[in-house]
């Protein structure tokens, strides 16, 4: 322990496939309704982050808050974020869905945007939420890239994590970024996922080039077809890494999982096409009593489809249950 027993999640008929689970929600799921209140949070370096709040029982309701972080090139209005926010609101939590820099519908001011291991903006968001003065308990939920950021934040320097942080959930988290890239490169269908994300990243670089032509060279941008190429050319130099491998190694959360001090659930499906073997940290879960690893047979990447009368997916129900179990109201 705490490697949890195989959960009782059973996908609907015809959906017990990792690729279907990964793709179908974006195609067939209605957008879960959430009443967001947007806020622009200024950062110390002169930039800003867009935050979207939703409340359990109207403004001023709960004393418990969940900060939700989206995946690579996502934002707070993605279906999976809205679904989680709605489920957590129903479970009695206020939600703050943060948009990484350059996400959320408005480009940020500075050349930098975000990367898969960036945690300073999450730390600033936590303190911004604490400054509201209402929340006695704060939990964290992250999807995919946001899950890796969340785990890295909790384990890299646990002494600076505020005592109000009480629990966390990471859904479909690529704990080892290099292994995630290898997995995607090994699958015939991986080309589809990579191109989908690179299409959005290329657009972001073009927008940055218009703002900072001396920093962002777009010569040959359209020819970039792998994460390695993109990270070698843009991510690594922009954030001070030596190269893509150096970035993946230093930005991965797996090396710090043993140091997490709050109850934290990693929810990674065995058929996730984005996750290689090193993204299932069994040794770390056995050694750290605060780290819970749950690996359903199916679920895909940020999938976990459930035909539920309330419209909630299994990962949303499981996350709400875990947070409530470890942070009694």
UniProtKB/TrEMBL annotation:
It comes from the Bacteria. GO terms for molecular function: monoacylglycerol lipase activity; short-chain carboxylesterase activity. InterPro entries: AB_hydrolase_1, AB_hydrolase_4_sf, AB_hydrolase_fold, ABHD4. Pfam families: Abhydrolase_1. Residues 65-305 form the AB hydrolase-1 domain. The active site is at 144 (charge relay system), 272 (charge relay system), 301 (charge relay system). Belongs to the AB hydrolase superfamily. AB hydrolase 4 family. This is AB hydrolase-1 domain-containing protein.
